From TrEMBL:
GO molecular function: hydrolase activity
UniProt keyword terms in alphabetical order: Apoptosis, Cell membrane, Cell projection, Cytoplasm, Fatty acid metabolism, Hydrolase, Lipid metabolism, Membrane, Mitochondrion, Mitochondrion inner membrane, Transit peptide
Species of origin: Ophiocordyceps camponoti-floridani
Protein name: Acyl-coenzyme A thioesterase THEM4
Enzyme Commission number(s): 3.1.2.2
Amino acid sequence: MRPPTSPLRIVSPALGLIPSDTPPDLFDSAVAHFSSIAWVAGRLRRPGGILFIPQSFNPLSPRGDQFIGDTLGRNPRGLRHMLGLFFPADGQLTDGTHPVHRIETFCSVGVGLSGYEDVMHGGMVCSLLDESFGIVHELNTVLGKQPPAGRNHMTASLSVDFRRPVPVPTDVWVSAWIEGVEDRKAFMRAEMKGADGVVLASARSTWIALKEKL
């Protein structure tokens, strides 16, 4: 398969996506970290999965993707690693009319993101859920999906249910998926879980595909 072409900064050796100026150990260090955690490694080893580093963890410039990729991602007590995973169905990598609807994102969260003592700040929980929604759309864009799936999207609404306190430091995984599409609107859901598989937080969100510039 020819590598997709896109200005996005997703890193995925399996897809031939290694943007220029990507830190040389960005992908390998994330894979090594999560592979060392038994419950995460089990999920990574499922057949047919493709691993990738989300764009937000590999910023192009100091003017964009700074919150996740720089402010948090370059702080050893912040967001230490992020690794995405998806399972393409038949034709999904080559058929522009067949978008990806579900992704998983693994996050290694340091104690610097606590609110209450040893508990992840609620705003950070919201940010990781919101970011996971955006990753679905970024992946469809980098895979060259036809509009509206392949367009840039923005959050229109976000509703979060906090089920349990999320301890820090910790490793969590967020599963995000598209429930339905209506014109330029994508209706989405996500869940954050820990090692025991219990839902720690869940979210509903509506995203809007941006109109093309005239």
